[in-house]
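G., the chain you wanted modeled:
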Amino acid sequence: MKPDRYYSSHERGVQRRRHLLRFAVFAAGLLLLTILDPALYHFFAVDQARIERRDWYRLLRIIGYLPTWILLSALLALGPAHALRGRAWLPAISAALAGLAAEILKLIIGRQRPLPDGSYAFKPFLSGFLDGSNLGMPSSHAAVAFGGAFALARLYPKAGPVALLCAAGCGLTRLLGADHFSTDVYVAAGLGYAVAGWLSGDRRA
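Predicted structure as tokens:
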């Protein structure tokens, strides 16, 4: 992509409008899921002991495990040097930064993991920096999964749908285990998208 100084004022205006539109769509989705959160919590939540030993659950769960993306990037780095032009580590870096961003946002937002009745509970503003336990918004595992998946999709667009489906599956495991609300996963996906776009240098992200 062209450096910022080579964009015309019209092009910059188009980019700003595109960003505003995407933000508006994201905000609308967040509002809708916030309304649906309690119902979705009860719909998806199951006895975790019933599923945590299932192979499919474990597979999807580790998509949100940072070493998974480190291993994948290492495999990409061992491929033909010209294929990725030094960008093989993008999925691992994106996954790590998205997870870090999620951890910081948790401390700022202070929303705790779902209560048994599916309701919200918040810690006092910024008190998460003193006690960061039991915070859920956004999901760190989902952020890692989507950060890595969106980055991989930028390297290999044809693999994007599979990567994002796996990331969504990781998000689903967070709901099935009653560990997170749907909005926790949704915001994590947004973080992953933003971080991957920023790292790729794509001004259209």
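The chain has a mean pLDDT of 89.

Shout if anything looks off.
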